[in-house]
Amino acid sequence: MKSDIIVVGAGASGLMAAYGAAETLVAAGSSASVTLLEKMPRPARKIMITGKGRCNFTNLKDWNSFSTHIRSKSSFVKPSFFNLTSEKMIAFLESYGLKTVVERGDRAFPESHYAGDVVDTLVRACNSKGVKIETETEVSGIETSSDGFKLTITDGRTYTCSKLIIATGGLSYPTTGSTGDGLRWAGETGHTVTPTFPSLTALVPKGYKQGDSLKGHIDRSTPLSELGKKLCGIQLKNVGARLIVEGSEAQDEFGDIDFTDGGLEGPVGFQLSRKAVKSLVNGSRVSVILDLKNGVELTELTGRVKELWAEVDKDPRSKRLHEKEKCRILLGKLMPWDLIPAFIACNPSIMTLERRSRTETKVWVNLVSIAKALKEWKFDIAGYVGYERCVVTAGGVSADDVVAKTLESRLVPGLHFCGEVLDMDSDTGGYNLQTAFSTGYLAGISAAKSL
Question: How would you class 406 by CB atoms within 10 Å of its CB: exposed for 0-12, middle for 13-18, buried for 19 or more?
């Protein structure tokens, strides 16, 4: 089977690449064909789970702000972004019938908050320009020649094309079809593939999962420990978080943290994860320090804790209570009730047991320690959840081997790369999908113009 342009991988970047190529050909009055090959039963399985199924498909920040959320070379992404900006992406989807809304943090969603509507819109756009979408068509090998490319399918069929666009994604969520095929093909054709590692993933504190010797990649399915059970399901709003690598501060963030069955997640957890995982892979010691009272200095907080303790101690209802019970009441004035058991378990120094005799002991509540623990709740990080549930893959085809203005390979003429297969990753919040859409669209346009 022959097609002028073939796109491999019908994810976010692949769909936009196919659309961009077909739109360009139609506008030029060309009858050249565009075929999109996808090994899964339907396109864009990964988009379907984006944003917990709500699909935060872009972010409306301007380039100066947007680029600070790109964790690889933002200069490489810049030509793609300005070719298809966030505003243009919204306009494109709306032109094909998708209603959108913009929420806190400049994040754009489909009005329905259903990711399937974004996928259906992208497929509808491709169909409108004559793109042939072939699902359940897995490419097993790619050969290059002076005439173009020959693709072998797992069932024995072959496809040939003049221009080839690799949009196969990275390694994250392999059940959606991202199994690193494009990275392998890039390496086989002489391209440098920057070492990959999971990003936007859960960080696993020591003692959070069952197993004393766990480190590095810790599968999400590993059972929670008693501590993990105490923390799992808790969501913290507006907290500070510092990433410490080998004793030095490496990153400082503010926002929301979630404790899940994987570990530390949420927007802030994800933002810390890229540098944390890379450090862990390199053998460095990593910890995360949470500041539950980010807007208050330690001295002021200590005074406040002492005032609250005096109130609890003077309350008539406290007369018959033990110190431990009064401490819980105090902590209930400082944090969510469901966080207290884990806070006490992780910070045993907040209560001191004094043995006065063989039969008498006294519990002392250390108010200074409570204030310090609220400001510096330290979690030593044992490992991370791997590709099975990370949001994005860091690393990939080196930007040095690809022309930023066309996304064509510097080594193999006619071969283009786009999306997560490239060494290109960003923060959560719509940034990753927008860079996928932008690079895909530019790759498609460039391939069509060079026919």
Answer: middle
